[in-house]
């Protein structure tokens, strides 16, 4: 077994070797290096064909029309293009946007920018289980609401929103519905012929493709219009100019094709690994899973280990590549804004770790990880004055701490 | 973040981990920090009649640098008088452990902890406690 063990698949995935092979074929003189926009020779035509094959694969993953797929540099750009593009285009109808407090920064920061431009944004607070419920969206709707942007699966806690139901609400009011599906595409079945989603963001590196490439789904019926954010040669029907990165696009296409083929079996396998991991730690005292247990993707588990601090826990777990819910490392001493929005108290938020499992995770890795986690938590609890107090039956909330 | 060898050494082999009876006449306890901030340090010193620290124990909830700072501090204060211990500066701890700028507050916590422990023993002994300006 190679160390450290990679359990951070929701941050990024390694490129599948089958994808890497295809990408490598798009680069050199001997390969398919042409500019897909070159109309006057074979090199261009071949590159265009590869790009269109890839577009079909991405479209098929979510049951869309290939003409509804726009290439971008990743989910961040897709989120920007979707939200700013729709807000700018439809601002004549109103200037109100609805999103949630636990969106990815690519959505939150985009909304902040729109606020500076004079838009008004409602940030919904998810319930304790991390879910934003359709009723909440309905209540927040106003006559001047033009865009609703909500994520399908949250990247920190793995909880799933009911985007089909929210889509119905938006369509009934002719409000544009954008979904960030970076964490769900390839992990959950998505059927855009059925679901009333108008715009959907994807990222290749969350589905075993390369970083730096993504896509935005833009619905044709009923037609959704966007104001371009990147101007230039008019590529991608004017929605996103720039020479198409054939090797990246082919990588994303192949990744989408593979993930569609393997999704059913892969989800089952990952769920079994997740359960195997959790079964080995769940009997420890004061260990809590953050977010709904029922409504979540298989691969992400966010756990709070009370009375130990996340950064020191990660330091003990140097053989595991995982991420901490506490941003103490970044010197801001801020616990994760996602956990905070769920109402997780700061102490538990500082004590949380995110484990995410994926295609190359093995049972042996999961067993090793669980044993290491137990050992580290026990060691740090021995070192923790809070653990002593808990064991003495003292309620930590009754103490007046000298906060600094 | 890369930790210095000294931080790792203290973190992996913390010195003087433990707990003393905080009601004992000769024990001074300093508890600083807050769970919500991600760090709580409890430092205890056992002081003889001559004001010399005979033993020290700590427990810390916090990052590796906070654990290392408190572990190092227990080594430093043993054998010192409470007057001397009170003079220990966070900058000395930060320097010894080669803490990066973002981790300076962890050493500040250790300085606060020894000051609080000394104040506690002085109070127990009915000595005049220097009033510090509120921080
Ligand atoms: C939910 C979500 N949205 C957006 C992104 C950003 O994607 P990208 O890295 O492709 O820009 C990520 C991943 O980092 C994500 O998890
Ligand atoms: S205790 Fe938070 S960074 Fe050291």
What does this protein look like?
The complex is a heterodimer of chains A (404) and B (135). By secondary structure, chain A is of the alpha/beta class. Chain A has helices at 17-24, 42-61, 75-90, 105-116, 134-140, 163-172, 246-279, 310-316, 337-341, 346-350, 363-382, 385-391, and strands spanning 5-6, 69-72, 96-100, 120-124, 145-151, 176-180, 199-203, 214-218, 287-289, 300-305, 320-321, 323-324, 352-356. A 7-stranded mixed β-sheet of chain A has the order 2-8-7-6-5-3-4, with helices on both faces. In chain A, helix 1 (17-24) packs antiparallel against helix 7 (246-279), helix 2 (42-61) packs parallel to helix 7 and helix 3 runs parallel beside helix 4 (105-116). With 135 residues, chain B is α+β, with helices and mostly antiparallel strands. Chain B contains 5 helices and 3 strands. The model of chain B has no long low-confidence stretch (mean pLDDT 92). At the A-B interface, helix 8, helix 10 and helix 12 of A face strand 1, strand 2, strand 3, helix 2 and helix 5 of B. The complex binds pyridoxal-5'-phosphate and FE2/S2 (inorganic) cluster. Chain B: This is Iron-sulfur cluster assembly scaffold protein IscU. Chain B: A scaffold on which IscS assembles Fe-S clusters. It is likely that Fe-S cluster coordination is flexible as the role of this complex is to build and then hand off Fe-S clusters. Chain B: Residues 2-126 form the NIF system FeS cluster assembly NifU N-terminal domain. Chain B: It comes from Microbulbifer flavimaris.
In a nutshell, what does this entry contain?
By secondary structure, chain A is of the alpha/beta class.
Nearest-angstrom radius of gyration of chain B? 14 Å
SSE arrangement of chain B, N to C:
HEEEHHHH
Tell me the total number of β-strands of chain B.
3
Low-confidence blocks of residues of chain A = 327-332
Based on Cα principal axes, name the global outline of chain B. globular
Catalogue the unreliable spans of chain B. none
Shape of chain A: globular
Sheet with most strands: strand arrangement of chain B: 1-2-3
Overall SS class of chain A: alpha/beta
Portion of residues in helices of chain B? 40-55%
Query: What's the total helix number of chain B?
Result: 5
Described by its quaternary structure, the protein is heterodimer
**Which two chains share the most extensive interface?**
A-B, 30 and 31 residues
What is the element string of chain A, with H for helices and E for strands? EHHEHEHEHEHEEEHEEHEEHHEHH
> Which kinds of small molecule does this entry bind, naming each only once?
pyridoxal-5'-phosphate, FE2/S2 (inorganic) cluster
With helices defined by DSSP (H or I, 4 residues minimum), what is the helix count of chain A? 12
Strand content of chain B: 15-25%
Rg of chain A over CA atoms, rounded to whole Å, is 22 Å
The class by helix and strand makeup of chain B works out as: alpha+beta
Function (chain B): A scaffold on which IscS assembles Fe-S clusters. It is likely that Fe-S cluster coordination is flexible as the role of this complex is to build and then hand off Fe-S clusters.
Protein name (chain B): Iron-sulfur cluster assembly scaffold protein IscU
InterPro entries (chain B): ISCU, NIF_FeS_clus_asmbl_NifU_N
Domain NIF system FeS cluster assembly NifU N-terminal (chain B): 2-126
């Amino acid at each position: 077994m190679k160390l450290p063990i990679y359990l951070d698949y929701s941050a990024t995935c390694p490129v599948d070797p089958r994808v890497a092979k295809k990408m490598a074929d798009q680069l050199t003189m001997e390969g398919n290096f042409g500019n897909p926009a070159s109309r006057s020779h074979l090199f261009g035509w071949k590159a265009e064909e590869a790009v269109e094959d890839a577009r079909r694969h991405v479209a098929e993953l979510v049951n869309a029309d290939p003409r509804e797929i726009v290439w971008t540099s990743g989910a961040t750009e897709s989120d920007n293009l979707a939200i700013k593009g729709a807000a700018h285009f439809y601002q004549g109808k109103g200037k109100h946007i609805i999103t949630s407090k636990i969106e990815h920064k690519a959505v939150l920061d985009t909304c902040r920018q729109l606020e500076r431009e004079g838009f008004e944004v409602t940030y919904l607070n998810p319930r304790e289980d991390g879910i934003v419920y359709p009723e909440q969206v309905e209540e927040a709707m106003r006559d001047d609401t033009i865009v609703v942007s909500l994520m399908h699966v949250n990247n920190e806690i793995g909880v799933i929103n009911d985007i089909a139901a929210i889509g119905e609400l938006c369509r009934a009011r002719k409000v544009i519905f954008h979904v960030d599906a970076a964490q769900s595409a390839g992990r959950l079945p998505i059927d855009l012929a059925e679901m009333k989603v108008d715009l959907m963001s994807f990222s290749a590196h969350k589905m075993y493709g390369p970083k730096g490439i993504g896509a935005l789904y833009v619905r044709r019926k009923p037609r959704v219009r966007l104001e371009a954010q990147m101007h230039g040669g008019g590529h991608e029907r004017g929605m996103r100019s720039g020479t198409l990165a054939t090797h990246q696009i082919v990588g994303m296409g192949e990744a989408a094709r593979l993930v569609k083929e393997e999704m059913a079996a892969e989800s089952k396998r990952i769920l079994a690994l997740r359960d195997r991991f959790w079964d080995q730690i769940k009997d420890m005292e004061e260990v809590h899973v953050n977010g709904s247990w029922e409504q979540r993707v298989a691969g992400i588990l966010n756990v709070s280990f009370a009375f130990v601090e996340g950064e020191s826990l990660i330091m003990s777990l140097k053989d595991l590549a995982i991420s901490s819910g506490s941003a103490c490392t970044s010197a801001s001493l801020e616990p994760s804004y996602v956990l905070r929005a769920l109402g997780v108290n700061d102490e538990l938020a500082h004590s949380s770790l995110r484990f995410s499992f994926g295609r190359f995770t093995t049972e042996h890795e999961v067993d090793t990880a669980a044993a290491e986690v137990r050992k580290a938590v026990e060691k740090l609890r021995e070192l923790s004055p809070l653990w002593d107090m808990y064991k003495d039956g003292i309620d930590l909330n009754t103490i007046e701490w000298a906060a600094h | 973040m890369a930790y210095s060898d000294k931080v790792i050494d203290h973190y992996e082999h913390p010195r003087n981990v433990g707990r003393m009876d905080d009601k004992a006449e000769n024990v001074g306890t300093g508890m600083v920090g807050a769970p919500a901030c991600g760090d709580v340090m409890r430092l205890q010193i056992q002081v003889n009649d001559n004001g010399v620290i005979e033993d020290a124990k700590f427990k810390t909830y916090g990052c590796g640098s906070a654990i290392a700072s408190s572990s190092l501090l227990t080594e430093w204060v043993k054998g010192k008088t409470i007057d001397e211990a009170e003079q220990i500066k966070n900058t000395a701890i930060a320097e010894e452990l080669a803490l990066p700028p973002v981790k300076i507050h962890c050493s500040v916590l250790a300085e606060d902890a020894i000051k609080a422990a000394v104040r506690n023993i002085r109070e127990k002994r009915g000595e005049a406690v220097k009033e510090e300006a509120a921080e």
